[in-house]
Write a structure and sequence with these properties.
This protein has 20 helices and 14 strands. It is α/β, with parallel strands linked by helices and 544 residues long. The strands form three sheets. The protein has a six-stranded mixed β-sheet with strand order 8-7-6-9-11-10, sandwiched between helices. Helix 5 packs across helix 12 (327-338).
Length: 544
């Protein structure tokens, strides 16, 4: 059923992914919806398992203008939200008609930054029945990279992927095997138009200001990617999404190169300079008369074009290559990776969660042997106490594993109350492959592995947007609490845990590495955790 597909669309059920050949060769369809600052897009892709690829069956766009937020409060307006509700209802109906196996809905900059963004997401769930994932800027950049890579052969050359959206601009340095740098900057075509353009055509002073503002805003991102370009490398600049496609269409028309598709179309710097110079002098009404420019695009094309031109100058390249694939296709690729449809050059992305968690663990000096031990205990408790200590359908397993690997990272700041520091570090770190909601749940699970139970006044508890998330965090944190109680010594004495479950009774037996080893310390610590759990769960837990 579609509802089941929606609810499980971002679910990851395995930590170690087997990326071997998918045995199921039937055709299936996946739908993705990108709720952007200016527009909301629907894409329906038909997967071709034998080819490990997909084709696009339907692509639709609706100009929902979520970026036109209330100037005083910064909130999404009722008018914009109602436009989005109407669009999302139609897109859901379309997806149902195609009998899609998965429907993935992602919201980006406008919803991410609005103070009522989470309320908006809750209303979408209530009114339409869609689960929306609020993705971070870094995760947005990663998905854009996947989308571009799915439709473009990178070869042995590094590529700079540029995505100019309505509210943010992503710049990625990547090759065919890995993204070397992922950046997201809070400048976009809608944002600049709304905040700085009061008269159009803009004056020469406004143009100069915008160029300086864009350059200053992008300096940090440019510096980050530049440091990861090796000596002798000359990256290819790839531009994607609305601004780049509109400019590409204008130039191809002007040069009599009119094309039905712009994938791979190359724009020389002098052609870009020429079209930007022309666009700046025109009114929005005059620009809307140009071929391929809609009325809304004509209003925001100038700031978007200035971003593209300025970045092209900053990275010192003479040509831009266009990609028609971006975030929406990246969501499809990500789904295919996680469901074993891809096994070649993109297959490594299926383990992106594991690799990003390990990276953060190393970054904060977590003892890898001990965190590995705790994560193994946690997986044992999870797998063998389903239906007794938790009723999770699989989503929580991966979140529990990540929290177990990172629960002690707060010791990097201070050993005192380190669980609180762990929450802060996880919350503000990069966990690629996780939605923002999942990211916050991982941080909260780590936060509650020791000391007090969740309280309504806790910030990390307030950030969880609904009761299902709080229940999941509560259950997973109890399992992590049990697991951490067994990690009392620098060197392990426990070889395995034997768990027997019957009705509402759980028997635990700790098996030492060597016969005769004393496990009184571990049993004492485990007993403390059990006493707390008994206050919450109607279950009997015994240590044999």
């Amino acid at each position: 059923m579609l509802g089941e597909s929606i609810n499980n669309s971002f679910q990851r059920n395995s930590i170690e992914l087997d990326l071997g050949e998918n045995q199921d060769t039937k055709l299936c369809r996946v739908a993705t919806i990108d709720i952007g600052t200016n527009s909301t897009h629907l894409l329906i892709a038909k997967l071709e398992p034998k080819l490990n690829t997909f084709s696009i069956e339907l692509a639709e766009k609706s100009t929902t203008r979520l970026g036109e937020r209330d100037p005083d409060t910064g909130e999404l307006t009722s008018l914009a939200m109602n436009r989005a509700f109407s669009t999302l209802k139609r897109f859901k109906d379309l997806s149902e008609s195609y009998k899609v196996e998965g429907l993935l809905v992602a919201a980006t900059s406008a919803v991410r930054e609005a103070s009522n963004g989470r309320i908006f997401i809750s209303e979408i769930k209530k009114k339409i029945g869609l689960d929306v994932e609020l993705i971070s800027g870094a995760e947005e950049a990663r998905l854009i990279y996947l989308g571009v890579l799915s439709g473009m052969q990178f070869g042995n050359k590094p590529h700079l992927v540029l995505d100019i959206g309505g509210g943010s601009t992503e710049l990625i340095l990547a090759d065919s095997s890995e993204a070397r740098a992922l950046t997201s900057t809070k400048i976009g075509a809608v944002r600049l138009q709304r905040e700085f353009i009061k008269k159009d055509p803009i004056s020469s002073q406004t143009e100069l200001f915008l160029r300086s503002f864009i350059r200053g805003s992008m300096e940090s991102a440019i510096d980050k990617v530049s440091k990861r370009i090796e000596v002798g490398e000359e990256p290819v600049l790839v531009a994607t999404s609305g601004t780049a496609m509109a400019i590409g269409a204008l130039i191809s028309s002007k040069e009599n190169h009119i094309q039905s598709r712009l994938q791979g179309y190359k724009i020389p710097k002098n052609n870009l300079d020429s079209i930007v110079s022309q666009l700046i002098k025109l009114t929005p009404s005059q620009r809307s008369q140009l071929s391929s420019l809609s009325e809304r695009r004509s209003e925001i094309i100038v700031p978007g074009a200035l971003i593209l031109q300025t970045i092209m100058n900053m990275v010192n390249v003479d040509e831009i290559v266009l990609s028609e694939r971006a975030l929406r296709e990246g969501l499809v690729v990500d789904w295919m990776c996680r469901n074993n449809y891809l096994k070649d050059q993109l297959s490594f992305q299926g383990s992106i969660r594991e690799r990003t968690v390990i990276h953060q663990s190393r970054r904060f000096g977590v003892n890898s042997k001990r965190s590995k031990r705790v994560s193994e205990f946690a997986m044992t408790f999870y797998d063998q106490t389903r239906g007794i200590l938790h009723n999770d359908n699989g989503e929580g397993r991966d979140l529990l594993w990540a929290a177990a690997k990172l629960h002690a990272c707060g010791k990097h700041i201070n050993i005192s109350a380190y669980h609180k520091h762990s929450w802060y570090l996880i919350k503000n770190g990069e966990l690629l492959g996780y939605s923002q909601a999942e990211h916050l749940m991982v941080a909260a699970i780590a936060r509650y592995h020791r000391k007090s139970l969740p309280k309504k006044r806790h910030e990390c508890w307030q950030l969880l947007i609904d009761e299902s998330q709080r229940n999941l965090v509560s259950d997973m944190s109890l399992l992590l609490r049990l697991s951490c109680s067994l990690d009392r010594r620098p060197e392990p004495l426990i070889s395995k845990i034997v768990i027997e479950v019957k009705n509402k009774k759980v028997d635990l037996e700790l098996i030492p590495n060597d016969l005769g080893q004393n496990l009184d310390l571990e049993k004492w610590s485990l007993t403390k955790a059990i006493l707390l759990i008994k206050k919450i769960k109607d279950v009997e837990i015994n240590i044999l």
